[in-house]
Design goal:
A: 115 residues; mainly beta; six-stranded mixed sheet; 12 strands; globular; B: 115 residues; seven-stranded mixed sheet; four-stranded antiparallel sheet
Chain lengths: 115, 115
């Protein structure tokens, strides 16, 4: 069965610190897709990244980077030099190619970046 | 190119009334998903629809909840005889034809408050 775990419920950091948000997933599929979404205080969900199971290359986008480790079923998200505007709830999600019919989201991690 | 449109943004109902939530997917998208987010919780899948078809409703409560996505017009999530526990943010998302590896585009959500 599909499952996404985000063990960190809440994280607080001071501005300019680096922070890593953990995501661990479970799937029986060999082909699957992983996503991160950001939900700022305004409530909308903003897409950040998509990764397929065959691409384990880590990705960097500005201050954001993602570390996909298939061996540990993890897809962690790091924000470098955090800013107050990064304060939001971050969701990791999993979509299977061959099983399951729906997108499964983790419970989310609330990140607070303090000035 | 308008995004996913949900209305109303806020909906207040008294216990026992009906709530109708509307979602217009992005242009060209024929797949719609509904998610519910309870306060301080993550997104819970409710239902996945294509035009005129319910593909997966495994996340829908067995009673009082229904969803449709007609050939013409928006997708509707209907909650009959609402109770206080239905108070939540309801998000709609859409995707193009091949949804498995496509990111979901989310609307801004409808905040339902049951008095």
């Amino acid at each position: 069965a599909q499952k996404v775990t985000q063990a960190q419920t809440e994280i607080s950091v001071v501005e300019k610190e680096d922070v890593t948000l953990d995501c661990v997933y479970e799937t029986r599929d060999t082909t699957y897709y992983l996503f991160w979404y950001k939900q700022p205080p305004s409530g909308e969900l903003v897409f950040l990244i998509r990764r397929n199971s065959f691409d384990e290359q880590n990705e960097i986008s500005g201050r954001y980077s993602w570390n996909f480790q298939k061996s540990t079923s993890s897809f962690n998200f790091t924000i470098t030099a955090s800013q107050v505007v990064d304060s939001a709830v971050y969701f990791c999600a999993l979509s299977e190619a061959n099983y399951g019919q729906n997108f499964v989201f983790g419970p989310g991690t609330r990140l607070s970046v303090l000035p | 190119n308008a995004g996913v449109m949900q209305n109303p943004r806020h909906l207040v109902r008294r216990r026992g009334q009906e709530a109708r939530l509307r979602c217009s997917p992005m242009k060209g998208h024929s797949h719609v998903y509904w998610y519910r987010q309870l306060p301080e919780e993550g997104l819970k899948f409710m239902v996945y629809l294509q035009k005129e078809n319910i593909i997966d409703e495994s996340g829908m409560p067995k009673e009082r909840f229904s969803a449709e996505f007609p050939k013409e017009g928006p997708s509707i999530l209907r909650i009959q005889q609402v109770v206080r526990g239905d108070s939540a943010a309801y998000f709609c998302a859409s995707s193009p034809r091949d949804r498995r590896n496509e990111k979901l585009f989310f609307g801004s959500g409808t905040q339902l408050s049951v008095l």
